[in-house]
Amino acid sequence: MPAASSLPRALDDGAVLRVAAPGDEAGILAAIHALAVYEREPDAVRTTTADLTRSLFGEDPKAFAHVIERGGEIRAIAVWFLTFSTWTGRHGIWLEDLFVDETDRGRGYGTALLASLAAVALERGYPRLEWTVLDWNAPAVGFYRSIGAEPLDEWTTQRMTGDALTALAGR
Description:
Blueprint: E1 9-10, E2 16-19, H1 25-38, H2 49-57, E3 63-70, E4 73-85, E5 90-100, H3 109-124, E6 129-130, H4 138-146, H5 162-169
Helix pairs in contact: 1-2
């Protein structure tokens, strides 16, 4: 895989892997909605194109995205942000969303997107690329194992939202 700094990169089928740019928000949001449907949470997405503009392309972005575009349409996305490990003393990459349109699966887009994030991590000296996957998503789990990802079986993701978040903040 070429260095991340070499993006954009043409793929074998004529698609282009590139860093997301202003104007991509609607395509990214469509992929986020499609991912939510696939993950059985069709009504969970609250993000708007304005949110994506601010978060991905604002004055001081904290989230980033790589996209694969073919025929003028975004066909796949990887949305990510930086983490920090006190154990390594370095940042890492957290992959928030990886989505390939159902009609484009099997073209190597998922591998290309993950390889581009791995290249970013290596270029910047980040020792980790991490993400979560739903236990029931056997195709994704199989794909991740095939590229060398390992589960962290002793670690469980924790989340706090809504009333619990508000209550804790008020303590």
